[in-house]
Amino acid sequence: MATIWVFAEVGPDGPTSAALELLTKARELGDAEAVALGPGAASAAASLGEHGARTVYASDDPVYDEFLAQPVAHALHALVQGHAPDLILFATTYASRDVAGRLQAKTGTALMSNAIDVTSIDRVRTQIAGGTLLVDVELQGPSPRLVLCRPKSFVAEPVGGTADVVPVDVDIPDALRTAHRVERHEESAAGPKLEEAKVVISGGRGMQDAANFGLLDQLAAVLGNAAVGASRAVVDAGWVPYSYQVGQTGKTVKPDVYIAVGISGALQHVVGMKGAKRIVAINKDPDAPIFRLADLGVVADALQFLPALIDEVRSRKGA
Amino acid sequence: MNIVVLVKSIPDPSGDAELGDDLLVKRDGEGSLDPGDEYAVEEALQLAEASDGEVTVVSMGPEGAVSAIRRALSMGAHRAVVVTDDALRGSDVLATARVLAAAIGRAPFDLVLTGVESTDGYTGTLPMTVAELIGVPAVTFARKVDVTDDGIRVERQTEAGYDVVESTLPALATVTAAASEPRYPTLKGIMGAKQKPLETLSLADIGLTVDDVAATQRVAAVEPAAQKGPGEVVQGDAAAGRVADLLAEAKVI
Fold first, then answer.
1. Cβ–Cβ of B218/A70 closer than 8 Å?
2. How far apart are CA A180 and CA B168, in angstroms?
3. Residue B15: its pLDDT value, please?
4. Cα–Cα distance between A219 and A309 in angstroms, integer?
5. Nearest by Cα to B177 from B22, B14, B39, B17
6. Is A132 within 8 Å of B225 when comparing Cβ atoms?
7. I want to staple A139 with a disulfide (CB 3.0 to 4.6 A). Which of A145, A199, B4, B29 is the partner?
8. What is the ipTM of this complex?
């Protein structure tokens, strides 16, 4: 049976949801194991085991967190040489992309990015052209094959197992302690996280000005359990922080309802939200591409329509 | 400070992707400079101007890639190296990284800059693979790059905000749109670009063989994704009520 590793990122609350999602797929493909490096790794093993990892290679050494990618890639490569997994699954996140890229230079094996499914240990499905084409790619050559999956491609399912924890003890040379994280700044956002909210309301250029994002905040507040996102265009323009961005380089969301306000529907935005159960698009241009995938389109100026919608929702909630 | 900028020539970013018989996106004709790489070119020019340094553009691509390279030269880069070889058609990310690493390694450098990911392929791992192959530290997603006495100090975007990362040089960084506003080439810049050194190299010129760039993946099948047809479209006074109906159907109000 094939051995499938999940490279599990660990946050303050344990393994990321993306890591647990990947374990669902890993279990389906073979024996699932996980690698977790950095503070909190050992204690994350319980959750990883519960989601199907039989073995967790773990180290709590802060070196993996303080220095970017090089120590992690070095240790991961040492583990690969020792245990020869067939396939390693990563989430498409900043940290994992960096690690996978470095690892590929060391292993010289196949790497596939932006996978939305892994159909066998050597076949991966991805989407191009804004999700209009599905592409099946066959991975060739020696193992381990490296596959980066977009978050929310699979559903995390606990199976109630317990993982054996194998401590990772790899010497990290000083030469790899060079890109040093010296400060951390976190922008705290009120309300539910984008990835977890039932409703996501995203604004684009059609909001005309950063100050008008207040209308989206109002709608979110009236709805409850709603979060505000943005297109890359307005993040690049500096209207809202990067943490708002939905799309290719931003977040992938799958809410019950996605409301795109003044967003034209560029391909790079669409890949981050097309999995929503229902899509509402509000745009004054009736030919905007976003209408092609909207369940409900409203042809209107966002700034005029939003106050009417806020009033309508408020009156129905009050009823 | 000697800065290398890695750039990619991509098919028209606003056009629809067209597939050839081999299931690869067609890349005939003239390409455009990837807009994501323009930020890296601008950042490189600013850092070079502040330090009396030079900017070398390095790229791999078909012959049509030259127009994208010229764009970077007309913005102000000093010289360019482009690796073009029939054996590189359809190259995967590993082969591309090996080619770029070999091309970078031909001359001394302090800093390598590039975009965070290509606009057409968006694999997003190539810069780090290159960094590993040339043996330097790297900082991805830089929204600000400052040169210090000991190296660079970078503000790196994160999912929750940003980190400050310090690194020794030589190093590699990928820059986001927040780092700089790309300048438009001036007429003088466009005319001057034609006189700047543009070196075209083959695989053999950079010391690689066909085996070094052998594919590790193959496109097995392509099919159109199931698309939802365009849904209902409304306007006028009833629109707000109709959106509220949908929110109620979805049980979110």
1. no
2. 9
3. 59
4. 8
5. B39
6. yes
7. A145
8. 0.92
Q: In what order do the strands lie in the sheet with A180-186?
A: A180-186, B161-167, B152-157, B138-147, B171-175, B111-115, B2-7, B54-60, B79-83, B198-201
CA distance A300 to chain B (A): 6
Beta bridge partners of B123: none
B196 min Cα distance to partner chain A (Å): 32
From A93, A133, A248, residue closest to B122, measured CB to CB: A248
Say whether residue A200 is in contact with chain B using an 8 A CB cutoff. no
- Cβ pair A151, A16 in contact under 8 A: no
* Phi (first) and psi of residue A175, to 5 degrees: -60, -20
For B153-157, what is the mean pLDDT?
95
Closest CA in chain A for residue B224 = A133
Distances, alpha carbon B206 to alpha carbons A227, B103, B191, B202, B219, in Å: 51, 6, 29, 7, 28
- A14 pLDDT band, cuts 50/70/90, is very high
Q: Are strands B138-147 and B111-115 parallel, antiparallel or unpaired?
A: unpaired
Contact B131 A102 (CB under 8 A): yes
Is pLDDT of B19 > 80?
A: no
Return the biggest CA–CA distance within chain B.
68
> Which residue, A61, A29, A24, A25, is CA-closest to A42?
A61
Asked if A298 reaches chain B (Cβ–Cβ under 8 Å), the answer is yes
A178–chain B Cβ distance below 8 A for any pair: yes
Q: pTM for this structure?
A: 0.90
- Mean pLDDT for A290-319 is 93
Pairing state between β B161-167 and B152-157:
antiparallel
| Polymer length in residues for chain B | 253
Closest CA to A164 of A285, A44, A56, A302: A56
- What CA–CA distance (Å, rounded) separates A141 from B212? 13
A185 with B17: Cβ contact below 8 A: no
How long is chain A?
319
Residue A236 sits at the chain B interface (C-beta within 8 Å): yes
Is A208 an 8 Å CB contact of chain B? no
